[in-house]
Amino acid sequence: MTFTTAALPQDLSFYGEGSADLWISATAKDTDLQVTLSEVRPDGQEMFVQRGWLRASKRALDPARSTELRPFGHYPQAALNPLKARQANLTRIEINKFAHVFRAGSSLRLTIDTPSQTGYWKFGHLPDASTNSIWHDRQHPSSLVLGYLPYTHASGLPDCATTLRQPCRANAVPVPAGVGPDLPR
């Protein structure tokens, strides 16, 4: 599932951790989730920015260490929390630290998927297949929370071949028309 903003009217800079606060339901007691943040550029390229992963049964948080920007996991065996089947469950997925300027004319994209293998790292296999749903209504306000860095202006788009560990690919998903997102003031 992909959420894409309309084109940004100005440069927008984010720094630090982030959180994808998603209300999910699943047909299984557990599921693995990956969120990927990217910039859809006006030149037709999509640039990777950062991602985060979570096994949903490990969604318990340490309230003393968690913040609005960083859901700090609490992972002892006693904290495992199976999903309530076919019911909305709040699941906060930490987006690893990053610093990125989204240029005016670009769009911000959040993709929610099951994790791919990254290098040598991957989740262990879950025994049950699952169909997952993302909820977003008044009672279940799924959201993306990022650390805003004000007063940033960047020069033009960086060349895709020069940005370390942030590969580009041709954008295959249309960008919505209209006014961009509400921006911090």
UniProtKB/TrEMBL annotation:
SUPFAM superfamilies (UniProt xref): Galactose-binding domain-like (SSF49785)
Q: Where is the Xaa-Pro dipeptidyl-peptidase C-terminal domain?
A: 1-144
One Pfam annotation, family name?
PepX_C
Return one GO MF term.
dipeptidyl-peptidase activity
Protein name from the UniProt record: Xaa-Pro dipeptidyl-peptidase C-terminal domain-containing protein
